[in-house]
Write a structure and sequence with these properties.
Layout lengths: L1 H15 L7 E2 L5 E7 L4 E8 L8 E9 L10 E8 L7 E4 L1 E2 L4 E7 L4 E11 L2 E11 L2
């Protein structure tokens, strides 16, 4: 029993650190994830707060899109879907609002604590690009 407790509290967190593509917090209150989207070379920066997200509390997200030359992508459609990983529930979605400067904003509420998969669909120049990550929602 003591060995099992040691494995769960000491060894397991060490072994699992960095094993998944989770957002890396940039501060105690904001999360941040940067990705090159598909083969497009477009750069997506997702920032969100709070970090970690809290069940039944507002979740604010911003996606910034930049071209391969670093210019803001201003004419895209951005939609985020969120689905609880451990439950057989349909995905929820929010269409982000475009501020015209390459920034897209949206709000959501997670109904339960646990791991949630966020999938961002970006439609630009007739192509749909996707980027996903998992966030862990707290109580």
């Amino acid at each position: 029993m003591v060995i099992m407790a040691m494995v769960l509290t000491v060894i397991f967190p060490i072994l699992t650190a960095g094993c998944s593509q989770n957002a890396t917090p940039s501060s105690p209150t904001k999360g941040k994830m940067t990705a090159l989207v598909g083969s497009s070379g477009m750069k997506m920066i997702l920032t969100y707060q709070p970090n970690p997200p809290i069940a039944l509390k507002p979740f604010h997200a911003q996606v910034h899109l930049a071209s391969t030359k670093g210019q803001p992508v201003t004419h895209a459609q951005v939609t985020m879907y969120w689905k609880m990983v451990d439950m057989n529930m349909p995905a929820q979605k929010v269409d982000f609002k475009n501020d015209g400067a390459g920034n897209y904003h949206g709000h959501a509420i997670f109904f339960m604590a646990g791991p949630w998969k966020l999938t961002t669909d970006i439609i630009t120049q007739g192509k749909t690009l996707k980027e996903s990550l998992t966030v862990h929602v707290s109580n």
